[in-house]
Design brief:
Layout lengths: L7 E4 L2 E7 L7 E7 L6 E3 L6 H13 L9 E3 L5 H4 L2 H8 L2 E5 H29 L3 H10 L11 E3 L4 E2 L6 E5 L8 E5 L4 E5 L21 H10 L9 E4 L8 H22 L7 H7 L11 H20 L3 E4 L7 E4 L12
Protein name: MBL fold metallo-hydrolase
Pfam families: Lactamase_B (PF00753)
């Protein structure tokens, strides 16, 4: 695990507070503290773990505040390394918690169905993707049960100001990584808090998971990246992972180009016989290689492949061809559909 940097005064009433993600190669989430006359407002809160809580409270103390002083927590998206501690901060301070309404609806849905059903949905999706019985058995034994974060008190929409007394903090809706992912713009110091939407070296996972609603998350993500095309070069970008940078528009274009190249590669892998999501994923290049992945990582990779296939479908380049009694298969849209037995 990478060393945890200290809390840092970034000037103009903004602090960076690294909060560890135990057991995760990302190392930590960068929580940002924005000073206000009513008390600090946090951008994200970090993972729900005692080590994370200790780092968050110590970071607040470095900034001359305590967790009891927190006025509000605005969550860029519902994932546990961002929203996990929001409920505990609220319990300790009476702070409000806000997120985009699309993610708020997901959080309520997770709470309704419970962790066991969410886990069962993940297993069903892996089976539909083409995972083998042995892989499904390992996945059932090893996959952690997802615990949804605390539901928010406030729901945000695109362009809506966040309650930051004495300053303006604007919501920028950037769906893709999650349906309700948001960035936040602080115009008085020209800072853009990007959560996971825009990171300096890596790209966020864009996938179809256990609750596929028929949408196009990669298409949404590419559109959200295009929103940043007019961002001034010197706007300071404050992501939730890695490090701060400038050149948001250039970085957004690089990430879009990466996904377009993957879409092209995936389209070339489709053939007239069709392939399952699992088979397509195994043919794609991955950083650690498909053969070196644990089954939980394969499920994530297949979810990302599914999102890319969905975009190919929307562009008229791929079609689903349901196999008889087996997982769905995809083939090129311009390939002749296989004839049924007995036809000529």
């Amino acid at each position: 695990m990478r060393p945890l940097p200290p809390a840092e005064d970034l000037g103009e009433g903004v602090w960076s507070v690294p909060v560890p993600i135990p057991g995760n190669p990302l190392g930590y989430t960068l929580v940002y503290l924005l000073e206000s006359p009513r008390g600090p407002v946090l951008v994200d809160a970090g993972w729900n773990h005692e080590d994370s809580w200790g780092a968050l409270t110590a970071g607040l103390e470095s900034a001359g505040a305590s967790v009891g002083d927190v006025y509000g927590v605005v969550v860029t998206h519902f994932h546990p390394d961002h929203a996990g501690l929001a409920g505990r901060v609220r319990a300790a301070s009476g702070a409000w918690v806000a997120m985009h309404r699309a993610d708020a609806e997901l959080v309520r849905g997770f709470a309704r169905i419970g962790a066991d059903e969410q886990h069962a949905r993940q297993l069903r999706r892996a089976a539909e993707a083409g995972a083998t019985p042995a892989e499904l058995e390992r996945l059932a034994e090893s996959a952690p049960l997802f615990q949804p974060p605390a539901p928010p008190d406030r729901e945000l929409s695109d362009g809506e100001p966040v309650d930051l007394p004495g300053r303006r903090l604007s919501t920028v809706w950037t769906p893709g990584h999650t349906p309700g992912h948001i960035c936040l713009h602080l115009p008085d110091s020209d800072r853009l808090f990007t959560g996971d939407h825009l990171l300096p070296r890596i790209t966020p996972n864009i996938g179809l998971y256990g609750s596929d609603d028929g949408g196009d998350p990669l298409g949404d993500y590419l559109s959200s990246l295009a929103q940043l095309a007019d961002t001034p070069e010197d706007t300071r970008v404050l992501p939730a992972h890695e490090h701060r940078f400038t050149g948001a528009a250039r970085r957004a274009a690089e990430i879009a180009e990466h996904h377009e190249a993957k879409l092209d590669e995936l389209a070339r892998l489709l053939d007239g016989g069709g392939a399952t999501l699992w088979e397509l994923s195994a043919r794609l290049p991955w950083k650690r290689g498909w053969d070196g992945m644990e089954v939980a990582s394969r499920r994530m990779a297949a979810a990302e492949t599914a999102a890319h296939v969905r975009t190919l479908e929307r562009r008229g380049l791929a079609v689903r061809a349901d196999g008889a009694g087996g997982p769905p298969r995809w083939r090129p849209a311009d390939a002749a559909a296989p004839q049924a037995p007995g036809r000529s």
